[in-house]
Write a structure and sequence with these properties.
The chain is an all-alpha fold. The chain has 20 helices and no strands. The chain starts with a helix and ends with a helix.
């Protein structure tokens, strides 16, 4: 009986504390949102912040995810004015403690509560953390802050051959703006660049849209590595600039079928007579995947591509006829024009 009463009392207290926490957190969130909308003045927000500091870090991180860069700076300035920099000092201290979860939280939160110049060096150091999750979080924070000088350290410490986070790294480095291109190309010209690092850098050039990347990627299109040529042509296709068309047409003649398959897929972004002619020729490729990519790229070009595919029904090559009929049939079943 006494045990049951104790459990009930404990649950009541826990529920009360949780409700109190949520009320105060919501109040602070409403205040921050109102300040960003200029519906609350600075003094009003300062009063709320000073009264509810223990709810601040996770809340700022949440709000900053969707806030503009200027709004994030406004919030950080409020922390300084409220003399709440102890919050930042606490997170910086966490980077030197033994618990990796605390270090992970610190590198994640710091971009939302401190100016870049304050945390750049600690975040760069965190790239060498013994735990991969911490290194990835540090890299992501540096990318969110736009610290292009961190690109090489990020690739050196995370793009290690034989490890798994290559796709995640591409997503992280792809967050940088066009200022990153100089650093990415410099890394690719470094003879000590890792194989995985090259993959990340090349893929990132395809994500960060700038036509100057095409000329650099073209120089890499003759690399002896089939994989590197595949990444190069894939990025050219993603860029979609007209200057990438000629290299892609040349890549359709590459000796490696993986490269031809990549180019045939990339050509769907370049609807036009040259691409259609190249894809029609590619329909007689000896490799099934190349033929399939050629056919699906033609379909993706709309009516001109579809008409080009229909003309192949009379091809003397049975493989060409079969592939064109299969893709046209699949296209018809989807109700596409």
């Amino acid at each position: 009986m006494l045990l049951s009463i104790g459990v009930i009392f404990y649950n009541l207290v826990a529920n009360y504390q949780e409700k109190k926490y949520l009320i105060k957190r919501d109040l602070l969130k409403e205040g921050i949102t109102a300040y960003l909308k200029r519906e609350m003045n600075k003094d009003g927000l300062k009063a709320l912040v000073l009264a509810n500091q223990k709810y601040l870090i996770s809340l700022l991180a949440q709000i900053a995810q969707t806030a503009t860069k200027s709004d994030r700076h406004r919030l950080i300035d409020i922390l300084v004015e409220c003399e709440s920099t102890a919050i930042v000092d606490k997170e910086l201290h966490q980077l030197n403690v033994g618990n990796w979860h605390d270090r992970l939280n610190a590198v994640t939160y710091l971009p939302f509560i401190a100016h870049a110049k304050t945390i750049e060096t600690p975040l760069l150091s965190a790239l060498k953390d013994e735990f991969l999750d911490v290194r990835i979080a540090a890299a992501n924070s540096l990318a969110q802050l736009g610290m292009v000088g961190a690109i090489k350290p990020i690739l050196i410490n995370l793009a290690v051959d034989g490890t798994w986070p290559v796709q995640r790294l591409i997503e992280i480095v792809g967050q940088f703006d066009v200022d990153a291109i100089t650093y990415l190309t410099a890394y690719l010209e470094d003879p000590h660049a890792s194989y995985s690092g090259k993959q990340v850098a090349i893929a990132s050039l395809g994500i960060i849209k700038d036509e100057t990347s095409v000329a650099f990627l073209k120089k890499l299109s003759n690399d002896e590595s089939v994989d590197i040529r595949v990444w190069v042509y894939r990025s050219m296709g993603q860029l979609g600039y007209e200057s990438a068309l000629a290299p892609l047409l040349l890549g359709m003649k590459d000796e490696a079928w993986e490269v031809r398959a990549t180019c045939s897929k990339a050509l769907k972004h370049f609807a036009g007579r040259q691409s259609i002619d190249s894809l029609q020729k590619g329909m007689s490729d000896s490799v099934w995947w190349v033929r399939l990519n050629c056919a699906t790229s033609l379909i993706a070009m709309g009516v001109p591509g579809k008409l080009a595919l229909e003309k192949l029904h009379d091809s003397p090559d049975q493989f060409v006829r079969d592939m064109s009929q299969m893709v046209l049939s699949q296209n018809a079943s989807k109700g596409m024009v």
